[in-house]
Specification:
The protein is an all-alpha fold. The protein contains 25 helices and no strands. The N terminus is likely disordered.
Length: about 575
């Protein structure tokens, strides 16, 4: 067994480490996605193109005695020539000037598509799922400690909501640093260390002797957990075959599972131990769980760096080696080489973008990555700029609206539908109901994975996202208007949780798909940062609204979620079926 944490030097991938996976381009069609699926991607792409780039002779009919499958292989073999690949990667917008990065990125997409889903991809599905799991494990974990913190430290119910603000301070810093930083230092470092930071400060919080100490340690913990979603989503997306794109949405199923585990442990520890001991045991437990996830990621699994990141950094040989490594781990073959990448991209009309590799350029690039210049490519055309702004608007409104309700749900449920405020720890029934709500949310993510690729014009990414968001807003209004008993509150919250998990599942998949890989970390990082900033404001609003704070925050939450629905409808991009750059 290898323990890579015993050394911190970066291992440079090489194609020589994966002997036996390379096949000649002439045999590539025998190991292609077309051969497995029984259709020709090249023929489909060609027929849908309005602007053919190159003249390519059509494949002839199968000879006498050939089977239908052999005929299809002869058709798909046309894809796997330099000229055929040149034509395929240039399919798309008419008279567009493709950059060298974009062409090579599309070719890497094709190579990954031909390798297909395999053991490495499924392992990464689980390991990236740890990030989703940890995010909601701690988001809801902090919320579940609020009644106990209020009682132990003598803090009022409204004032203790600032605990959530401290968490969001850390989440803001974490999402900003790790989101942009992953475009500079790579996905792998961020992927490994976010959970370590989370576990260290999470366990430390269980030993805090004051409410202020708890808030400070929760803020430090948030700097780790805040980087999980933007980094893990980008990494998983960039090694995912196009035909399996729905798995990025399915990845979000780990999010409600994190909430479920958090609520079950809170139900057990907080209701069975004294108030000053129960929440500490609970926080210690989820901290240990987080550290175990870090150990599995860093100590037991060899993670390949994202080939798109390596390509964007001018490390083409390593990018090709990573594709070979994925093929090796999946027990498949690949045809991709540096020579093929260069030959396919080498053509008149290709925009060359030089990549500096000197020490001075690397330092300069590291500094520039945290400037406005790194974000400017997100507005390189009107369509992408509009989509970027609307997506950031949706993340901001959801970031403010979601915690106004969910972050204080244990407090709302403890009132049982009455207007009376309580200053004691929530009873066991509250934590039981919270566990039920968490359980109902899990099927929402499964349904989202099915509907995001559905051909219905009302579904897909945008349709599923908009419908689930609208229903969430409606049932928030129902909760505050008709939720006058514990049972009615439970019903409305279960429906709302089911729809919100659909919403978040699609949102986390849809967002990185909109942005091209060189600025994907920046685009998703800024979205996550705005989401966390808005979440930071939510507890301040909830703590300072007039009255007892049991209804007004929920009305505000419903209005904000409704506003995000409007923004989703206006997004001009639908990524269903599109190839990612």
């Amino acid at each position: 067994m290898r323990f890579p944490f015993l050394g911190f030097r970066r291992r440079q991938e090489s194609v020589h480490d994966y002997v036996g996976v390379l096949v000649p381009l002439e045999e590539a069609h025998l190991h292609s996605h077309s051969a497995r699926s029984g259709r020709s991607e090249f023929e489909e792409a060609r027929n849908s193109s309005d602007d053919p780039i190159l003249d390519e002779p059509e494949a002839g009919p199968p000879k006498d005695g050939d089977t239908e499958h052999t005929g299809m292989l002869q058709m798909s073999a046309a894809e796997y020539t330099i000229e055929g690949l040149r034509r395929e990667v240039r399919q798309g917008e008419r008279r567009r000037r493709w950059s060298e990065y974009e062409l090579k990125s599309k070719l890497i997409n094709k190579a990954i598509q031909d390798i297909g889903m395999g053991w490495y991809n499924w392992q990464l599905f689980v390991l990236c799922g740890f990030g989703w799991f940890a995010d909601n494990l701690w988001m809801q974990g902090v919320s579940l400690t609020l009644p106990s913190l209020s009682e132990e430290f003598g803090v009022s119910e409204k004032q203790v909501r600032y605990t959530t603000s401290s968490l969001f301070v850390g989440l803001c810093l974490g999402s900003f640093f790790w989101g942009l930083g992953s475009d500079v230092i790579g996905r792998r470092i961020a992927f490994n260390f976010t959970l370590l930071i989370t576990s260290i400060f999470g366990i430390w919080a269980a030993y805090a002797s004051s409410w202020v100490g708890v808030c400070i340690l929760f803020a430090c913990m948030g700097t780790g957990v805040g980087g999980n979603l933007p980094v893990d989503g980008a990494l998983f997306l960039e090694i995912l075959p196009d035909s399996s794109s729905a798995l990025l949405t399915l990845l979000s199923v780990w999010w409600p599972v994190g909430q479920l585990v958090s609520s079950i442990f809170a139900w057990y520890f907080i209701t069975n131990w004294p108030v000053e001991e129960g929440w500490r045991r609970f926080v210690m437990t989820i901290g240990i769980i987080t550290f175990v996830m870090f150990f599995i990621r860093f100590g037991l699994f060899h993670l390949f760096e994202s080939p798109k990141y390596l390509l964007s950094q001018g490390r083409q040989s390593e990018a090709v080696a990573v594709v070979h490594g994925i093929a090796y781990r999946n027990g498949k073959r690949t045809w991709l080489t540096e020579e093929i990448l260069d030959a396919v991209a080498d053509m008149d009309g290709t925009e060359r973008i030089p990549v500096g590799v000197s020490a001075a350029n690397i330092i300069k690039k590291n500094l520039m990555a945290f400037s406005v210049g790194h974000i400017r490519p997100l507005f390189q055309n009107r369509k992408l700029g509009t989509a970027t702004l609307l997506m950031w608007f949706c993340w901001s409104t959801i970031g403010l609206g979601y915690p106004l309700f969910n972050a204080f749900l244990p407090q709302y449920l403890s009132h049982g539908g009455s207007d009376a405020s309580v200053d004691t720890a929530a009873p066991a029934e509250t934590y039981r109901n919270y566990a039920i709500i968490s359980m109902v949310g899990v099927p929402g993510s499964l349904l989202a994975a099915y509907t995001v690729d559905h051909k219905s014009p009302f579904l897909g990414r945008k349709g599923t996202l908009a419908i689930s968001t609208l229903i969430s807003a409606i049932f928030l209004f129902f909760f505050v208007t008709f939720g006058t008993t514990p049972n009615s509150q439970l019903f409305f919250t279960c429906v709302e949780a089911f729809c919100q998990n659909i919403m978040y599942g699609v949102l986390y998949a849809f967002t990185p798909e909109i942005f091209p890989a060189p600025v994907r970390g920046a685009g998703t990082g800024v979205a996550s940062f705005l989401n966390r900033i808005a979440g930071l404001i939510a507890p301040i609003l909830a703590a300072n609204v007039p009255g007892d704070g049991t209804k007004t925050p929920i009305y505000m939450s419903a209005i904000l979620i409704l506003a995000s629905f409007v923004g989703m409808v206006l997004i001009p991009i639908e990524t269903r079926g599109r190839q990612r750059l």
